[in-house]
Specification:
- The protein has helices spanning 2-26, 58-62, 179-214, 217-236, 239-244, 257-273, 276-279, 281-303, 308-333, 340-360, 368-449, 455-484, 496-506, 508-514, 532-550, 605-615; strands at residues 31-32, 39-41, 46-51, 70-71, 77-81, 85-93, 102-106, 113-119, 125-130, 146-150, 157-165, 169-172, 174-178, 492-494, 517-522, 528-530, 555-563, 566-573, 619-623, 631-638.
- It is an alpha+beta fold.
- The strands form five sheets. Strands 1, 3, 4, 6, 8, 9 and 11 form a seven-stranded mixed sheet that branches. Strands 15-17-18-20-19 form a five-stranded mixed sheet.
- Helix 4 packs antiparallel against helix 6 (257-273).
- The two termini are 77 Å apart.
- It catalyses: ATP + protein L-histidine = ADP + protein N-phospho-L-histidine.
- Residues 1-25 form the signal peptide.
Length: 640
């Protein structure tokens, strides 16, 4: 089985080699016309002679330089940008179609000069001149391609010569067509280009109507871009000379004017479509610089003669495609989702134009498909950019809806804040009225006792009321200052254990009088990031609350541990506790568990504690299983 496979492989290789030999043998052989075929590719039957100076006449080429012709081995002829004159020689065997109409058709329509030297029955040659530098009426057939009738009346191989020259790229794809083949080619050619220009026309009308209805300049810039694409392609396809300026072939040299319509229109379209001025001002300055460069290049382009003007316009196209491909990718990568189809448009177009330029420079084989790449690329860009405009509308609508939702949420939040402020104001007024009423009552009581002998008791009541008022005012101001400050103190390394030791020492007398014991279990090396003064103040508030509400003869537990990047400090007593509906309210300003008629505290200690801890990047909350089950205050701070 393996030997049989080897035999098949070798047989296949021999067949391929034989076919290659036949193909090479066919290079330069006469093109045989038969009734079985309506079209014959003639490029491989041609031989090429390059006249560097362009000074040889037909007689010298035919006789003296006949031996210098070299066989062409490709299906297309591409000589790139060259100042040389190209001579082509090929033979036609028309014995199988004697008397029938056959034509040499050069399908590349923007050759400056193309001349056919056709043999005559008497042995001489007839010269037929064409080219896009001649008026369109000079052509034998009214067609955008160059069509030369062939004489099939002589039953013998006959040599034909073609002379080609021009300032642009010399690309050729010659074919031999019968009358029916020429009709089929013309029908197919008009169908393809009819679809192409029909799509462009539809896009122009559609976007012009959108520009009128939506009043957005981006659609006008896109219409200008489409017009530039259309003008450029009408020129390079030969339809401009055929239908628009048949008597002014000089206009064909200014095919690049379409490029100078496209590029600034594309730049303005991109500025508006990508919202560069609002979102990416640096790139907007880049595009403005690009527009200035195009404006400065235009007079240079008008003054420079061909082919240098062609080189400049080609360079402008390459720079434009690279710039806007990069720009679209950069903006899309930066998070502007509406640029996705913009990126798809230019990256595909960039690849197609790159292949087309390589073909024009004769760096890759040139064929009819490469000649269509600019049209396919232009159509792709037009369709994708038009879809991108619709995608942009959807994106802007989504963005508008998002902004509307955010505005509504912000408004609702502000309304909630205003309502909370009203509630806080009411609470504060109730609190102040009560707090003011208490010392006033004391002063009134002191006044009623003023006529008695207990003068010391009177002054004690007055001083107590004064002290209460001063404490209320100072504590309230302290809370408002903390809540309204924009910049809290910088967080530094501090040890809660050392702060706790100092606090316990300062409150030793109170603890002793209350018969309270403190069980401290704080890691000695626990270090947190906070303001040391404010952390000490919060721990003092927690300890004072535990002493006040823990009840006499009880115990207080203080623990400090490091937990997954945070430090947790917990202060727990075994006193009156709190209900689950009160735990969050404890941190509201002026909230007091139980009756508001109290003589100690102002209902602000836990509210101030929350402000200081949260501004240090931490959290604070309360825990209790219910009334008379004890109360715990838990503090979380980042570890140092």
């Amino acid at each position: 089985m393996l030997k049989f496979r080897n035999i098949l492989v070798w047989a296949g290789l021999l067949i391929l080699v034989a076919m290659g030999g036949i193909a090479r043998a066919a290079d330069g052989a006469p093109a045989v016309l038969t009734g079985e075929r309506d079209a014959v590719a003639v490029a491989r039957h041609m031989s090429v002679l390059v006249d560097p100076e362009g000074g040889w006449d037909f007689q010298a080429v035919r006789d003296r330089f006949a031996s210098r012709f070299q066989a062409n081995h490709s299906d297309a002829l591409n000589f790139g940008f060259t100042g040389s004159v190209i001579w082509l020689r090929f033979a036609v065997d028309a014995r199988g179609v004697a008397g029938e109409d056959w034509y040499l058709v050069e399908r590349y329509p923007i050759l400056d000069h193309i001349t056919l030297f056709a043999p005559l029955p008497d042995g001489g040659y007839r010269r037929v001149d064409m080219g896009d530098t001649l008026p369109f009426d000079h052509r034998l057939m009214k067609h955008r391609a160059f069509i030369f009738p062939l004489d099939t009346s002589v039953a013998a191989d006959r040599d034909y010569f073609v002379r080609v020259s021009g300032k642009g790229a010399l690309n050729m794809s010659p074919m031999l067509y019968s009358a029916s083949g020429l009709v089929e080619y013309t029908y197919r050619d008009l169908l393809v280009y009819g679809i192409f220009y029909g799509c462009l026309l539809i896009m122009v009308v559609y976007n012009a109507l959108l520009a009128l209805s939506l009043k957005e300049p981006v659609y006008l810039y896109f219409v200008a871009f489409l017009v530039g694409i259309t003008v450029f392609n009408l020129n390079v396809n030969g339809f401009g000379l055929q239908f628009l300026w048949p008597s002014v072939p000089k206009l064909n040299e200014y095919y690049w004017l379409g490029i100078f319509i496209c590029t600034p229109a594309l730049a303005m379209y991109s500025r508006h479509f990508l919202s560069l001025k609002e979102r990416f001002p640096r790139y907007d300055r880049l595009i403005r610089g690009y527009l200035l460069g195009v404006a400065l290049l235009l007079p240079v382009q008008l003054l420079v003669a061909a082919p240098w003007s062609y080189y400049l316009s080609t360079l402008l196209v390459v720079v434009t495609v690279l710039l806007f491909s990069w720009l679209g990718w950069t903006v899309w990568s930066a998070g502007y989702r509406a640029a996705r189809l913009y990126v798809a448009a230019w990256f595909v177009f960039l690849g197609l134009i790159f292949v087309f330029v390589l073909g024009n420079l004769d760096w890759i084989p040139y064929d009819s498909l490469i000649s269509m790449l600019p049209h396919l690329g232009a159509l792709w860009v037009v369709v994708m950019l038009s879809l991108a405009l619709g995608d942009r509308i959807r994106f802007l609508e989504q963005e508008r809806n998002l902004l509307a939702r955010q505005s509504r949420d912000t408004l609702e939040r502000h309304l909630a804040e205003i309502e909370q402020m009203n509630r806080d104001k009411s609470t504060f007024l109730q609190y102040v009225s009560h707090e003011l009423n208490t010392p006033i009552n004391w002063i009134g009581a002191a006044d009623s006792l003023g006529s008695g002998d207990d003068q010391e008791g009177v002054w004690q009541l007055v001083r107590k009321g004064q002290k209460r008022l001063i404490g209320m005012v100072s504590t309230s101001l302290r809370y408002f200052d903390l809540a309204d400050r924009d910049r809290p103190p910088a967080a530094r390394r501090c040890r809660p254990g050392a702060l706790l030791d100092a606090l316990l020492a300062s409150r030793a007398g109170v603890l002793a009088r209350q018969g309270l014991t403190v069980n401290a279990d704080m890691d000695a090396d626990l270090t947190v990031l906070a303001d040391e003064g404010e952390l000490g103040e919060v721990l003092g508030m927690a300890l004072d609350n535990a002493i006040r509400f823990g009840g006499p003869g009880g115990s207080i537990e203080v623990t400090g541990r490091a937990l997954a990047g945070e430090a947790q400090i917990r202060v727990r007593d075994h006193g009156r506790g709190a209900g689950p509906d009160q735990l969050e309210s404890l941190f509201e300003p002026f909230f007091v568990v139980g009756s508001r008629h109290h003589e100690e505290g102002y209902g602000l200690s836990l509210a101030m504690a929350r402000v200081m801890i949260e501004q240090a990047g931490g959290r604070i909350w309360a825990e209790s299983d219910g009334p008379d089950t004890g109360f715990a205050l838990v503090i979380r701070l980042p570890l140092a």
